[in-house]
Amino acid sequence: MSAFDFRNVTLPEEAIAARSEIRAFLATELDAGTFEPHRASWSTFNRGFSQRLGAAGFIGVTWPTEYGGKNASSLTRFVITEELLAAGSPCGAHWIADRQSGPQILRHGSDRARREILPRIASGACYFGIGMSEPNSGSDLAATRTRATKVDGGWVIDGQKIWTTNGHLADYIIVLARTGDAGPDRHGGLTQFIVAMDSAGIEIRPIRDLGGHHEFNEIFFDACFVPDDMMVGAEGQGWAMVTGELAFERSGPDRFLSDYQLLVSLVDRVGPNPDRGAAVEIGRLVSNLATLRRMSVSVAGLLDKGENPALQAALVKELGTTFEQNLPNVARQLAPVEPSMASADPYVAGMAETILRAPSFSLRGGTREILKSMIARGLGLR
Amino acid sequence: MTEHEGDFAGIINDQARRLFERCTSREALAAADGGAFAFDIWTEIEAAGLPLALLAEEAGGIGLSPEAAFGIVRLAAYFGLPVPLGETMVVAALTGEAPVGPASFAVADGAGIAARVAYGQVSAAILVEAPTGWVLCSPSGDAVAVERNLAGEPRDTIELALAAGKAVQCPDWLAGAGLLHIGAALRALQMSGAMRRVLDLAIEHVTMRQQFGRPLAKFQAIQHLLADAAAQVAAATAIADSAVEAWGRPDFALRAALAKARVGEAATLVAAIGHQVHGAMGFTQEHVLHVFTRRLWAWRDEFGGEAIWNEQIGRAICAGGGAALWQSLVEMTSETTA
After folding, report:
1. Angle at the Cα of A340 (from A334 to A343), degrees rounded to 5?
2. Mutate to test the interface with B, among A8, A317, A379 (most CBs of B within 10 A)
3. Distance between CA B296 and CA B302 in Å, rounded?
4. Parallel, antiparallel or unpaired: strands A190-196 and A128-131
5. CA-nearest residue of chain B to A8?
6. With DSSP H G I counted as helix, E B as strand and the rest as coil, what are the percentages for chain A, rounded to 5?
């Protein structure tokens, strides 16, 4: 198995059927005007949208039916997510829960956590945040200092997390905390906990991003109690679990479709009869995007077979976020405008949204530099 | 592919690897580079049956799957094999006949002039796309111009006697497209092999070469350059695979266009990084790196450079409008029905 293998994947009938179904759902939402495609992104929180999506059976589809899922292939989930992204839908509320928290609870959570939480996620009514980063532990997760101390019947968490997207709206966050010594490889002594956000001892402070959005938060834990059965996996397994899910987090279409709606409006701006230079540039964007989709589908196929293609996922994310970040630069050359959030023109407003969001593309989910170092390790250079 | 067929393809692939490795010594590559055609190498390749890989079994071929057959072509490019194995393989498959020597293919004008044909003068047969249709010709007489590409591979302009050739039916799956698309997919695939070699050479070099008391590989700047190259190789490999997998299907032409466009972009970046990390050593004739980087620089422009294919793709997308783009992307890279 080579990291350069991005094999053909034949989507199952079930996934092709799901494409029609999710498109019908999205058409209904668009007709009802529930969202503006060029303004939304997969971090845009919209409770109503996620609830209707859950009610229609599009969240947690890969999980067993007893937990609210449909036992569907992860390729079916892939199709649903790419359609949600391409349509510019506001899928931020349920995104983290569906993409990584839910799957992790399913694999490593207690029986109670699975029974109580998963069906609510699948119904579109229960949302998660990620509690990994800390002020002194961004890319370097092994430097985690938030501590969990064993007490009777559970654990007490003290410390601080930061950059918790939609943490102020989430029902739970999964906190990576230190429960023991790091050991010689620095990866020991970390454990994950499901923390209910209505627990005592939690304080949330908003952080506004440079675009004015309130998505980020700082979260402070002061003797916050977590019952034993809200520990995820065994004590000390945190590092393995966090790194084990990276292939899911990094290879998905959310790594190259974040600003897809800007491409749609760019194509319309350029019009049906572009000059040669514009045609070449649009073609270049499309040949790059087609390649990314091929790679992403292929990794989804490997994940579906139970493999852990972490290196391929890093390659997809690095290429994908570079593409996303470059899109507004190309658009500026082909169809110059003064970007404006207030504009009624989807291209002009979409350009403003994208420019102000783009720096985050190569930061969230593993910075570009971390990914390149991972790739270099895969090449045997480190 | 059945499991049995997979084993069989694996055995042929292993045999091909050993053969290519043996045939591509530094001396052999240097001799072929701008020099006489390596008939000795061709004889071995032919004896191993490799030009028949893509030809159906009932026509006397090996009948490998397109993935497996083109996997051999990629391997040949990885070793810099200086004979037209890929060209001969596709000519055999497209004409349904076992070839009788090296073969090539080209687009010609009405007078039968075909420009810069790969291995044109030494080919025993050339499949020509003329304005009147496809013709399988035997070149006779001297070339109009004997030329070489940047890698020293023969690219002869030749005059073909179209009337004396044998008409060949262009397959239905290539309707609206033609040999230009076949060439684009072939070169894209070959580039993916050659750039993998550039990456491997670069990894080998930075691991061995010491500066400031440590291997170059330990410098983060070098690691990140090679990570960039690896990402390009991965993208090129993925999209070239997507083209050759569609061999025999109506979506082949579009996938070939996407592949040539994207792989050409990757070739430029990988060649540049390959040279940067090799330093002055890689800029010499003595080092083998140029065998692969000069091929990348030549192949990226053969059968249309990325600007030409991107323009074609861009025009089609713009004509369809923004709303139609997503379904086009889905069809380009996965299921062909909505």
Report:
1. 100
2. A379
3. 10
4. unpaired
5. B242
6. 50, 15, 35
Q: Please name every residue paired with A204 in a beta bridge, in sequence order, or none if there are none.
A: A219
Which of A272, A288, A298 has its CB closest to that of B262? Answer: A288
Cβ atoms within 10 A of the Cβ of A207, count? 13
**Other residues' Cβ atoms within 10 Å of the Cβ of residue B60:** 13
Asked if B314 and A369 come within 8 Å (Cβ–Cβ), the reply is no
Distance CA B213, CA A47 (A): 58
Which residues is B118 bridged to in the sheet? B155
Q: Is the dihedral of CA A324, A329, A335, A339 positive or negative?
A: positive
Q: Residue A192: which H helix or E strand, with range?
A: strand A190-196
> Could you tell me the pLDDT band of residue A140, with boundaries at 50, 70 and 90?
confident
| Residue B232 bridge partners (DSSP) | none
Q: Which of A268, A294, A382 sits opposite B333 (nearest CB)?
A: A294
Cα separation, A373 vs A379, in Å, equals 10
The burial class, CB within 10 Å (0-12 / 13-18 / 19+), for A344 is exposed
Chain A from 3 to 22: CB within 8 A of any B CB: 3-11, 16, 19-20
- pLDDT, residue B174, reads 97
Residues of B in contact with A319 (CB under 8 A): 231, 234-235
Q: Order of strands across the sheet with B103-107?
A: B103-107, B125-130, B133-137, B166-168
- The pLDDT of A118-143, averaged and rounded, is 94
CB contact under 8 A, A380 and B207: yes
Give one DSSP letter per residue of A79-145, joined into a string: HHHHHHHHTT---HHHHHIIIIIHHHHHHHS-HHHHHHHHHHHHTT---EEEE--BTTBSS-GGG--
> How high is the ipTM of this complex?
0.96
- Residue B127's SS3 state is strand
The owner of tokens 């399913």 is A106
Among residues A216, A224, A121, A140, which one has the least CA distance to residue A175? A224
- Contact call for residues B82 and B29 (beta carbons, < 8 A): yes
- What pLDDT is recorded for position B282? 97
Q: Beta-carbon neighbour count of residue B11 at 10 Å?
A: 10
> What is the Cα–Cα distance from B272 to A378, expressed in whole angstroms?
21
Q: Summarize pLDDT for A142-158 with one digit per residue, the tens.
A: 899 999 999 999 999 99
How far, CA to CA in Å, does B229 sit from each of B139, B176, B192?
A: 41, 35, 12
How many of the other CB atoms lie within 10 Å of CB of A237? 18
What single DSSP character describes residue A343? Answer: -
pTM: 0.96
Contact A85, A257 (CB under 8 A): yes
Mean pLDDT of A326-336: 98
Task: Dig out the tokens for A96 from the structure.
Answer: 């983290």
Question: CB B254: neighbour CB atoms within 10 A?
Answer: 20
Mark the ranges of chain B whose per-residue pLDDT is less than 70. 1-6, 335-338
Is pLDDT of A59 > 50? yes
